[in-house]
């Protein structure tokens, strides 16, 4: 079944101009077409339509994925009373004890946090832990070579942090036939998205599948 994802503004990337009232048509996990919603709807009158507020972009790339998942602990909601809800690092991480008692659960929750930030691709070096990469792929992520891995002192969960344009933070521009990885953000335009960051994400689509919905 073909699904059309529509938003007030589409940022397709690849040097293409933003599309007001834009949309992306998805079939079998791939991009079938993109452009003005009216044109796509007319070409596919029987399509299911998902409307998202604000801005629709290609999925984001997390360059710090390995460091985030190895150096941060993402608490279980049931631990909120004792550990809080924000990731733990440094001495707080060391105090958790042996890794095998918490690592797997933290990785799963960390991957979900990334989905909540519009992330659909992770950068990883060839020597990244195989178990971590397996978990990422099972969660719907694409794993790409470490072409833009983070190198600062502290990894950041938000792929848009420090980016000058949204295109800098996306895994790849939209292309017909390519994997349908999308993110929707509840902001009016690109400038607002860069200011608000990826925490404004309301939906993440990986290979055409809705893997996160915030509302």
Structure, explained:
It is built from 7 helices and 13 strands. It is an alpha/beta fold. The protein folds into 2 domains: 3-59 and 172-213, Urease, subunit C, domain 1; 61-145, no CATH class. The radius of gyration is 18 Å and the shape is elongated.
What's the gyration radius in Å?
18 Å
Number of E strands? 13
CATH architecture grouping of the largest domain: Roll
Fourth-tier CATH superfamily name of the largest domain: Urease, subunit C, domain 1
Helical residue percent? Answer: 10-25%
Which shape, going by the Cα principal axes? elongated
CATH class annotation of the largest domain: Mainly Beta
Report the uncertain regions.
none
Strand ordering within the main sheet: 3-2-7-11-12-13
Structural classification: alpha/beta
- Strand-residue fraction? 25-35%
Kindly, what is the distance between the CA atoms of the first and last residues, rounded to a whole number of angstroms? 23 Å
Describe this structure in a few short sentences:
The chain is built from seven helices and 13 strands.
List the helices and strands and how they pair.
Elements: E1 3-6, E2 9-10, E3 19-20, E4 22-27, E5 30-36, H1 37-43, E6 48-51, E7 55-58, E8 60-62, H2 65-71, H3 80-83, H4 90-94, H5 103-115, E9 119-124, H6 130-138, E10 142-145, E11 182-185, H7 190-196, E12 201-206, E13 209-213
Parallel strand pairs: 1-6, 2-7, 8-9, 9-10
Antiparallel strand pairs: 1-4, 2-3, 4-5, 7-11, 11-12, 12-13
């Amino acid at each position: 079944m073909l699904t059309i994802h529509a938003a007030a503004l589409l940022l397709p990337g690849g040097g293409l101009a933003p599309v007001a009232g834009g949309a992306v048509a998805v079939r079998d996990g791939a991009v079938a077409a993109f452009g003005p919603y009216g044109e796509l709807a007319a070409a596919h009158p029987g399509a299911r339509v998902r409307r998202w507020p604000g801005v629709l972009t290609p999925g984001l790339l997390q360059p710090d994925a390995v460091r985030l998942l190895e150096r941060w602990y993402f608490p279980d909601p049931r631990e909120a009373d004792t550990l809080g809800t924000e990731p733990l690092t440094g001495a707080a991480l060391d105090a958790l004890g042996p890794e095998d008692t918490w690592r797997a659960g933290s990785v799963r929750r960390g991957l979900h946090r990334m989905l909540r930030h519009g992330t659909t691709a992770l950068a990883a070096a060839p020597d990244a832990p195989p178990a971590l990469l397996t978990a990422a792929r099972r969660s719907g992520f694409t794993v790409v070579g470490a072409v833009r891995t983070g190198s600062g002192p502290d990894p950041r969960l938000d792929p848009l942090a420090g980016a000058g344009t949204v295109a800098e933070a996306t895994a790849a521009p939209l292309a017909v036939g390519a994997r349908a990885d999308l993110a929707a953000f509840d902001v009016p335009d690109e400038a607002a998205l860069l200011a608000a960051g990826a925490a404004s994400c309301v939906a993440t689509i990986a290979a055409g599948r809705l893997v996160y919905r915030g509302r």
